[in-house]
Give the backbone structure.
Amino acid sequence: MIPYVRDIEVVYGRCDQVSPLIRRVTANNPGPFTFKGTGTYIVGQGEVAVIDPGPDDPVHLEAILAATAGETITHILITHHHSDHSPLAGSLKAATGATIYGCAVTGHEEEDTGEVKMEAGHDLDFRPDVSLCGGGTVSGPGWTMQAIPTPGHTSNHICFALAQENCLFSGDHIMGWSTTVITPPDGDMGDYLASLATIQARNFTTLWPTHGPPIREVDAFIAAYTAHRHERANQILRALETGPGRIRDLVPKLYADVDSRLHPAAARSMLAAILYLSREGKIATVGAAGPDSEYRLVG
């Protein structure tokens, strides 16, 4: 079982000091994919970095500017291009002159259609001023941040490690309140599992997700997160032991304990797991793998 952490007090627009170097301002965009809303982090004092400014919301922009009044925002760091993370970066840059850092997504078409339509959309126009697709380091007075590429949730996902507090801003890669949605073709389960291992090996003290409270028991949480993914894959294999099946029929059975509003997201993650199992030679399908394809066990 994943030891979820969901206890967080949220007052929208309020700036909370959550550690010596970290403040958080939460956007008023709660929902089944965002939990209580997008938690925008401000790192440092005087010359600061802003991580995931969030949706294109002028009220949230004003809250970020009010929280940093008398300071200079020098860096805007984006974990990935989803519409609850990156769209406000342009307006924040226009207001402050800060440089945007991140990784542009390329080579993937949006496929949130039909029965598997996602609520959280994509900011397909996102283009950083400085690319961190291959990693890198950014810094300001009293803080140093390492960009760690963590593909899986999206192909361009980046986590940011704050050296001074041995903590990680984990974006949507690892969230305390829920599992992460993997949406092919941009998302990839194999990449995701490899990225989880990369983060676990770093022995961070705390994870700060963009949505929800911090994760303090990091090693145990990531171990449970990883085990959950493998168990979901094994559930699919067991379900197909009785004969071929389709994702639309499997999701209500295997995700019966999950809010039905999240079943479209579960369908995308199931497709990601099936593609992963297919590459391992455990599942086969006739024609291209997709949400309506019929899958069967190999052998």
Residues 54 and 85 are 4 Å apart (CA to CA). The domain at 228-297 is CATH 1.10.10.10 (Arc Repressor Mutant, subunit A). Residues 218-239 form the longest helix (22 residues). The helical segments are 58-67, 89-96, 189-200, 218-239, 247-254, 263-279.
